Amino acid sequence: MDVQIHWTYITPKKQEAFLVSDWVDAKKALALADDFEKTGRTKTVEFVDRNGTVWSKKELQKLLEEIAGEPHEIVVYFDGGFDHETSQGGAGAVVYYKQNDHRYRLRANRRLGEIKSNNEAEYAAFWFVMQLLEELGVHHLPVTFRGDSHVVLKQLSGDWPCFEDDFNIWLDRIEAKMRELHIEPAYEPISRKQNKEADSLARQALEGQIITSRTELTGKG
User: Among its keywords, does the record have Nucleotidyltransferase (predicted)?
Assistant: First the structure.
């Protein structure tokens, strides 16, 4: 979790200076704030995350303590599949994360209801990912999203516009959930070859094989 430090500093001539740091890791920000306070010239110090939420020192310390026992260091792979004959879709997702000093991989898929295209299946698959993250208890954390649907990722990042109303409905829903969970997203388009595990899960969902499994990873996993 990255934050900016907002610091009101009292100069030797008793003048106030308001300073804003670059984005820094929250743990490092707390350590810096301790150093600021040791000067004896700190009037106020606050922390602002990438969603604009303002935290006091105590609030940020408490949040980091809570997060330590919850999923973090999260990387998500997603993919959507579509059957033209049945107009059914399948969503596949793989979530890698760390919790209580252990690393895990969650593999899950879902059979989607009637949809119109493979593109829509990709948006629905990303929405499925957001639901998985909410169920895992992910909040106020950076999350890396990887998939071979460059259109979905580029539109979510704001790099590409979306002109289709049906897709904008999905985008609005995803972005609202992102804000609700205070997730700091990083979008990384990848190749189909790099996304084969999520693709396989989406295909299995289309075939009626519904999977939800969590595996603890070893040091080599």
Answer: yes
